[in-house]
Structure formats: structure tokens, C-alpha cells
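[09:14] KT: can someone run the structure on this one? pasting the chain below
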Amino acid sequence: MEQSAISKQVLAICSLHWPVILGSCFVRVNVEFVEVISKEEVNQRTWERGSGETLGCGTGACAVGVAGKIRGLTGSNTLIHLKGGDIIIQWNGQDQDLFMTGNAVYICDGILDSRILSQ
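[09:31] RB: done, C-alpha cells below
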């Protein structure tokens, strides 16, 4: 079985069983699951502690871009497909700036309890 087919199966299994797989093992960490499509493109799914699966994670996407380049799996410009939309990570290597480019969209309203600010 080729690498991409295996990656798709792993992502499918994880998406069905996130609470079981991650609820017990990774309660206190953020985890990125990545399928490398090509040197220029990956799929990323994110599990964040305290929240579960999220629409995206910019910090995690930056880590995926850097790790992919260091390991030779991706190049300097990587298109990352997240559940909430696509972003591009640009990084030319050690001691270089890292850039994340993508759309910003409004997703919700919230009310902050003022007691939180006094803690």
C-alpha cells in the first residue's frame, strides 16, 4: 500500500476515534496529524488540549511547515489544508523568518466574565 493511502487511513481512523485515542493519551498536549500530499501541500488535523479537534492552529501549522522542511518532506512554501481553511507557511531554513499567510474569518461571539480579569 502506498504512503498516501496509509496516511488517509490513519487520518480517517483518528477522526472517528479522537476522544478515545487522544482523550486518554494526550489530555495535556496539542497534537497535529499530517498527511503529506506533495512537497508543496499537506493536510493537517489538530487536537488542542481542553478543546478537542479544532478548525485550525496557526502555531501548529508553523510547526508542521518547519518540521516538514527539516525532514525533507516539504519545501520552503507549504500549502496546509486545515478544517477551517487553507494557509501557506513559508520558511527558508534556520535563522530565517517564518511567514504564515491565509484568510482571517469571523467565527464567533463571546462574553468575557470580568472576574477572570481580576485573577
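[09:33] KT: thanks! The chain is about 35% helix and 30% strand.
[09:34] RB: yep, looked fine to me
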